[in-house]
Design brief:
Keywords: Hydrolase. This protein has one helix spanning 2-19, and strands spanning 27-28, 36-42, 52-57, 62-67, 79-82, 85-95, 101-109, 114-120, 131-132, 145-152, 159-165, 171-182, 185-196, 203-209, 214-219, 223-228, 239-241, 250-257, 262-268, 273-278, 284-288, 298-301, 313-318, 322-327. By secondary structure, it is mainly beta. It is globular.
Length: 335
């Protein structure tokens, strides 16, 4: 009887998912060569309509693709020759010296066991070929970086890269590195190890709410975990939530900040949908279908990006070697 009930519940969940109306994208990007995974949005401060969406092509012959807002590949800003770049993130205002700040993207390069850092939009490497991560790990699979999120402290203006991996220990799964500038250039300094792991699958998607100093990450078959981003604060978990709303893998995370309200948008991968939560209360709000398949990564901005995306932009990976762009108003977050 119990087994039949579980099957019935599963069928009802499938049925409910299928009834969700599809919200069609405004733009579908040109295809990458191999396997898309994770995007990051750079907002052009001089002309928002000329902003760039970066997206990983997760393969041994991989790349970080640059797309314009029409979904066309910008070849001279695309980084090729990478060994399995997995996740990418972007942050603004990294200090190169007392008078110069640059925007940066950072991404994991799994097969080289390192992270990379480039300035944007000139796409110059700042890492002298890469920064090694998880160097003290004993097991080979614990050395393979996957997820990454950048955090700029509003208290100290220090910049950090928070990095996850293919597999790791039950405690201290994430490593947090400060990006440090000295006379020889940019370096990384490990400042803490934190983050609990259920040991059910893996941890890939990481996102940081800079304004509130909070790290969110997907413990894929368990829950969305929530920690403080400041290294000086407690490493104890704040909350573990959302597990009842996902079919199986909890994947990409994006934070839409409207000032008076913020929303967490999380990929419900096997259901081909997204779950929306209230950032302040962690409460589930709704589930939406954006037409993507098996979404890994996503990103969002509430900043208007010209005529095509006047209400902001939501970008999501689609399992057909491309990314979907939606005007943010279509998600109806502020109903």
């Amino acid at each position: 009887m119990k087994k039949n009930l579980i099957v019935l519940v599963g069928l009802l969940l499938v049925s409910c998912t299928k009834t969700l109306p599809v919200i069609d994208p405004d733009v579908i990007t040109e295809k990458t060569l191999h396997d898309t995974d994770d995007p990051a949005i750079w907002i052009n401060p001089n002309d928002a309509s000329q902003s760039i969406v970066f997206g990983t092509d997760k393969n041994t012959e991989g790349a970080i693709y640059a797309f314009d807002l029409n979904g066309k590949i910008i070849e001279d800003k695309t980084i090729r020759g990478l060994l399995r770049p997995n996740n990418v993130d972007l942050e603004y205002g990294f200090k190169l010296n007392d008078s110069t700040e640059v925007d940066i993207i950072a991404f994991t390069e799994r097969e080289r066991q390192q992270i990379r850092v480039f300035s944007v939009p000139d796409m110059k490497p700042l890492d002298n070929g890469g920064f090694k991560v998880f160097e003290d790990a004993k097991l080979p699979e614990h050395k393979l970086p996957m997820g990454i999120a950048l955090y700029k402290s509003p208290e100290t203006e220090k910049m950090y890269a928070i990095v996850g991996r293919k597999s790791g220990p039950k405690y201290g799964y994430l490593y947090q590195y400060e990006l440090v500038l000295d006379s020889l250039g940019v370096k990384t300094k490990l400042v803490r190890q934190f983050g609990e792991f259920s040991e059910k699958k893996e941890i890939e998607a990481i996102a940081v709410d800079d304004k509130n100093g909070i790290v969110y990450y997907s413990d894929e078959m368990h829950c969305i975990r929530k920690y403080y981003a400041e290294p000086s604060k407690t490493v104890n978990e704040i909350y573990c939530f959302g597990e009842d709303y996902f079919r199986r893998d909890i994947e990409g995370i994006a934070i839409a900040d409207y000032g008076d309200a913020s929303y967490l948008i999380v990929s419900n991968q096997q259901a081909n949908t997204f779950c929306v939560f209230n950032v302040e209360t962690n409460a589930f709000i709704k589930e939406i279908n954006l037409g993507t398949l098996q979404t890994d990564g996503c990103d969002v901005t509430t900043v208007p990006l010209g005529e095509t995306f006047p209400n902001g932009l939501f970008v999501s990976m689609n399992d057909e070697k491309n990314f979907f762009f939606h005007d943010l108003a279509k998600l109806e977050l502020q109903e």
